[in-house]
Inverse folding.
């Protein structure tokens, strides 16, 4: 059986790195899949994802649902764990990923001390520190092949590295940090070395969909054409072999055409929306609608917000609700809402968020999914797409819940600054925590914010550091002082999501200086959206207030500060 075979061998990335030699930032092991095991053994399963975009608005209160934590965990926990024990404990934790690497003599820590810095106060500080500790422990670069990086683990396969890759993309988008920008390229090179440039050999359509999403997002971050080419190529592969009229439509989970699952249909909807937006091609959005119409008709409870796991060829449905399926359903409907403006999509995202928060966790901390090596990373996917919904649709209560979970993860880290997927439990010391489990809390912390700080009115200067997404730019310098934005690609941008324009807003103010006289653009809803103003930025070392007069804008929108020319450097404070 493919799943068992996969667990019996070290990941090819590990073999390559051990063969070539590595420069290390630490070391540990990993593992793989209860969701896969569940689907192989009983014809149903688990898997999912989520992303980010847009602008919108809706109610800010959640319903008080009832239910138990068992809905989200014990449903597959029992079936997924039964046959998954080998993958989790036997191979995942104590295998080559930690012990084998350490024996090579190349393991070294990138962290000078285990004591956490005392000036870490904000959620953004904690997100940065938690990812730093994760990178120190689990990220390796090849000594022999410059610019190639890997997440080390002895039994994860394809989709887990894709999701840890998205965690790095999250961090880049939210900070503009140069090291994350470089890692986006390095990890992709390592992924290609391990899996090639054509992933059609992989029978799991969802595996390919996860990496398709990551590539589309990486293109938005870097502008590198290869990322877009890979995303388009592999979306088309999955669509052509996966969509069928069986069971009323939908995309098959695997090439054996036995089940149609949320874990492929919701992520593929997200991928279609991302490509439709990048390429300005409505046909992708039409496919997204086609898929989501099938999902809502067949594996979604409109009254509750519960997203079912799967629907098999015999007509049986697995009603189990999981964090990552809830998350990608929320993300898919958020992106559709941002594109079409139809309230139905917003309502579905809101209902699914309410079900997750109130029914699956009774408003509390996510403290499950620790009983298999597939489930352990699910909540990171949920956080990514809940963040997308909360930021783009102004859902403060959803952001508050994410922040509560992020703070719990931070408070329960171990002495090395690592966490486990059970966010309310203290992470143990002197135990090999598998990377995918350790990534869950990091992903949650990197997908929540202290508050939505953007205030735009005729009397306020835009706080440049309050951007919610960065693309094709790197940002350096300490917050609170003079910082630098360098455009590393044409049309570099900072996005300010969900800005409410006041009735009297006729101008925007920025504190900026440039390495030479230049013009930046202020655009609405996309980096190439409606041009509100062209802003002349003077050359100088000290930022000064510059003002852009704009036509009246009403409602909530995303605002973009765009640097058209590659190589320009702006300073701000």
């Amino acid at each position: 059986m493919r799943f068992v075979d996969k667990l019996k061998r070290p990941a090819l990335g590990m073999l390559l790195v051990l063969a070539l030699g590595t420069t290390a930032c630490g070391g540990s092991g990993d593992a793989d899949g209860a969701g896969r095991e569940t689907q192989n053994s009983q014809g149903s399963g688990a898997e999912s994802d989520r992303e980010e975009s847009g602008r919108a608005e809706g109610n800010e209160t959640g319903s008080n649902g009832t239910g138990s934590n068992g809905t989200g965990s014990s449903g597959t926990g029992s079936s997924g764990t039964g046959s998954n024990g080998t993958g989790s404990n036997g191979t995942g934790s104590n295998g080559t990923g930690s012990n084998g690497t350490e024996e090579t003599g190349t393991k070294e820590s990138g962290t000078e001390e285990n004591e956490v810095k005392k000036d870490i106060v904000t959620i953004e500080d904690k997100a940065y520190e938690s990812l730093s500790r994760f990178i120190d422990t689990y990220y390796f670069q090849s000594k022999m092949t410059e610019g190639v990086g890997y997440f080390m683990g002895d039994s994860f396969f394809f989709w887990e590295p894709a999701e840890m890759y998205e965690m790095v993309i999250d961090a880049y988008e939210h900070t503009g940090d140069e090291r994350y920008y470089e890692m986006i390229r390095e990890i992709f090179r390592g992924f290609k070395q391990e899996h090639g440039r054509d992933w059609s050999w992989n029978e799991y359509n969802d595996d390919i969909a996860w990496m398709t999403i990551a590539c589309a997002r990486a293109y938005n971050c870097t502008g590198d054409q290869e990322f877009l080419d890979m995303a388009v190529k592999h979306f088309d592969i999955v669509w052509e072999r996966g969509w069928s009229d069986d069971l009323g439509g939908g995309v098959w989970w695997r090439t054996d055409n036995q089940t149609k699952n949320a874990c492929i249909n919701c992520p593929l909807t997200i991928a279609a929306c991302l490509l439709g937006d990048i390429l300005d091609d409505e046909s992708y959005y039409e496919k997204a609608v086609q898929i989501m119409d099938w999902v809502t008709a067949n594996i979604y409870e409109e009254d509750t917000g519960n997203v079912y796991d799967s629907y098999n060829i015999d007509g049986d449905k697995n009603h189990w609700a999981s964090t990552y399926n809830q998350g990608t359903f929320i993300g898919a409907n958020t992106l559709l809402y941002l594109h079409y403006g139809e309230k139905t999509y917003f309502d579905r995202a809101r209902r699914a968020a309410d079900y997750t928060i109130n029914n699956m966790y009774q408003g509390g901390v996510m403290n499950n999914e620790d009983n298999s090596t597939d489930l352990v990373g699910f909540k990171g996917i949920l956080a990514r797409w809940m963040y997308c919904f909360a930021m783009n649709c102004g859902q403060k209560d959803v952001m508050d819940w994410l922040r509560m979970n992020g703070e719990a993860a931070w408070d329960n880290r171990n002495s090395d600054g690592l966490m486990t997927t059970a966010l309310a439990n203290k992470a143990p010391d002197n135990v090999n925590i598998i990377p995918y489990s350790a990534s869950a809390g990091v992903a949650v912390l990197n997908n929540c914010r202290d508050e939505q700080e953007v205030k735009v009115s005729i009397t306020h200067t835009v706080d440049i550091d309050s951007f919610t997404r960065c693309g094709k730019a790197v940002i350096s310098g300490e917050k609170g002082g003079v910082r630098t934005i360098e455009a590393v690609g044409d049309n570099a941008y900072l996005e300010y999501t969900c800005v409410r324009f006041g009735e009297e807003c006729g101008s925007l103010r920025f504190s900026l200086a440039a390495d030479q006289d230049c013009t930046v653009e202020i655009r609405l809803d996309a980096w190439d959206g409606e041009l509100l103003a062209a802003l002349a930025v003077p050359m100088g070392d000290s930022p000064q207030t510059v003002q852009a007069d704009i036509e009246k804008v009403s409602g909530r929108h995303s605002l973009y500060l765009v640097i058209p020319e590659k190589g320009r450097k702006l300073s701000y404070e």
